Amino acid sequence: MDEPIADTWPARWWHALDDGRIQCDLCPRDCRLHEGQRGACFVRGRKDDAMVLTTYGRSSGFCIDPIEKKPLNHFLPGSSVFSFGTAGCNLACKFCQNWDISKSRDMDRLMDGASPQDIARTAAAHGCRSVAFTYNDPVIFAEYAMDTADACHALGIKTVAVTAGYIHPEPRRDFFAGMDAANVDLKAFTDDFYLKLTGSHLAPVLDTLTYLAHETAVWVEITTLLIPGKNDSSEEIEALTGWVRRELGPDVPLHFSAFHPDYKLSDIPPTPAPTLTRARDIALKNGLHYVYTGNVHDTRGGTTTCPACAKPLIVRDWYEILDYRITPQGTCSGCGAAVAGRFADYAGSFGQRRVPVRMLRQPA
User: Fold this and answer.
1) Architecture, CATH, for domain 59-298
2) pLDDT confidence of 2, banded at 50, 70, 90?
3) What does pTM read for this prediction?
4) Beta carbons of 239 and 282 less than 8 angstroms apart
5) I need a labelling partner for 344 at 20 to 30 A (CA). Which of 29, 36, 223, 228 fits?
6) How far apart (Å, rounded) are the C-alpha atoms in residues 61 and 54?
């Protein structure tokens, strides 16, 4: 925590304490810092008696992805999204599948740099309809993400946050005011899991989800990574899906994703396909309209079905769209029923491509 801070940007959401420390008010960790220290996320720290962000304008890489990879199945389906992240994270997930980025303390890994305007212009030049803040949690580089969102909106480009939702109410309001869509990781449905495997708590995440669903216009989808023996019991899935149906409503899409051994949980086997199917069946039984399986080839689990006539509307194999039957107005092309989401003219599937983009870092 005592490494020197360089290349900094003024940060928001902090206050001075009576004991001489300052407290970061971004997330529920409430890190309290002496001069020169960094918080648990490692990218927000104290310099010259103020809070600073060390990753503004610096990225671990830029890439063009299918929007379905975020995963978002009801937000401009088939389109491409310009994706980037920085380094660090305010959670400590033992199963992190981007751990080389989110757990990095090496600022020299951030080889690509770009201003918010550079990102917006590059996304537009590549024909991307949205920009995603992803790979690591964007709440910890909120100032950079929010400025980039403003630059994107000025060019008619949408913005997407892929986040664990671990953030205090005031910065949450400011941050999501610039987002058009979000995929929120609901990592489990017990505080014991959150505490032991992520170093955080469940309640703030549930608060973020209810806030987004009821107090914003942000399009929201949820992802739960099912880890064998940790959060995949039928009882826990019943509780999780019942809460989503009761508190958020039946139209919030839920993705059950397959775990693969990684980081500090390399001794746990991959999630069996039947576990994903069982979870999906429980969610559908509990009244959710749009439930998906992820990280597997499962056409049935990837298909969007009309909640009124039960006809398949978007048939997917992983990130590839095989058939598309939703009107630009967001209705079933068969019966005319409304389909929850954000839809537009369908221009075909970007598919499973991944296109890295290199942006040279601008001199200070």
Assistant:
1) Alpha-Beta Barrel (3.20)
2) very low
3) 0.94
4) no
5) 223
6) 16
